[in-house]
Each structure stands twice: as structure tokens, then as C-alpha cells.
Design goal:
The protein is built from three helices and no strands. The chain has helices at 2-13, 31-41, 54-81.
Amino acid sequence: MIPARTEQVDSRMNNHPTPEAGMSRPKRKTLEERIAERQAQLPPLKEGKEFEHGPAKFVFIFLLVFIVGLHLVGLVVLMMLGLH
């Protein structure tokens, strides 16, 4: 009785088709091929639109403004200390 149970467990765990079974799985495309197909389906980018992602644009502009602001504050502080 125990060997029959292990055969059932083995048959459930081995669900891959074998060459003897006459069943062949369709070959899956490579990652590069799937990415290329997805990119081919995208519409062309509009000219002058550098950022496709809104939050990335927001972060980029925020960092630019923040860095320029820090430089200006640093310049004012140095000028007040007379170290310009």
C-alpha cells in the first residue's frame, strides 16, 4: 500500500513531459526577443519629450533646483563672511 502512494506522489511531482510521451513543449522565446517585441509595439517617442516617466522628471527638476539653491546660499554665506 505504501509503494502505491509514493507512485502517486511521484507522478504528481513529475509533470514535465518526457520525450517518450510524444508531447513537446513549445519553446519559450528568449528574454531579449520578448523585450524587443514589446519595444516594437510602443509608439515612437514625441520629439522634445525627454522624460517618459512623470515622477522621474519631478525628481530631476527638484534636484537641479535644490543644488542651484544650495550653491546660491553657500555663495551668500561666504560673501557675508568675507571669504569670497
